[in-house]
């Protein structure tokens, strides 16, 4: 049995005599910034790594996974449902979820199982998102954006985002346990939400309540951050 953890950088032509059992798509990068603060090049980079990287890897190994009735595990995030300062990351994770939903249904007839892991805030464990620097963000803004946003606003938004990162869980083993269960359980779940209760409640509100309710909650969380 072979289980391979891959990022998009590691496309290998490899077949074990014991067969090919599992593929874990775990590549991911994150950053902070409002929509207009980020360049088109950065959007393309994030889509290439977080979304297209997983798709490329999956397509490369799909013939083997079908042959050996294997499993595919994707690392998503609860941020696929909502965002607080990293919309570029949310965008790629939401798109990945839809790709997985289509793939899961299509692979059933081949006996291939597709699972999604949806971690909450584990930034302190994974180091996927280092603390952000307001000064660096400000220096990278275009002149047009600097006319709209003042430096104090950028500083407050950066401080708010850093407080979220610093509150992340250090128990990264919880996510690993979910990945192992998805690969080895005789009856794996389609989705594993590995998150704190308050994070799960936010997802519940986002999924089942009108959009205006979630917008109100997130707007309240940001209410101390003003443009002027």
Summarize the structure.
The protein has 228 residues and is of the alpha/beta class. Helices cover 52% and strands 11% of the residues.
Uncertain spans, ≥5 residues at pLDDT below 50? 6-15
Helix content: 40-55%
Beta-strand level of the residues, as a percent range? 5-15%
Overall strand count: 5
How many distinct helices? 9
**Principal-axis shape:** globular
Main sheet attributes: strand count, strand direction, barrel closure: 5 strands, parallel
SSE sequence, one letter per element: EEHEHEHHHHHEHH
What is the rounded distance between the termini? 60 Å
Please state the structural category: alpha/beta
Strand order in the largest sheet = 1-2-3-4-5
The averaged pLDDT comes out at 87
- Rg: 19 Å
Question: Can you tell me about this structure?
Answer:
The protein has 228 residues and is an alpha/beta fold. It has nine helices and five strands; from the N terminus they run E-E-H-E-H-E-H-H-H-H-H-E-H-H. A five-stranded parallel beta sheet has the order 1-2-3-4-5, with helices on both faces. The protein is globular, with a radius of gyration of 19 Å. 31% of the residues are buried. Residues 6-15 have low confidence and may be disordered.
What keywords describe this structure?
single chain; 228 residues; alpha/beta; five-stranded parallel β-sheet; 9 helices; globular
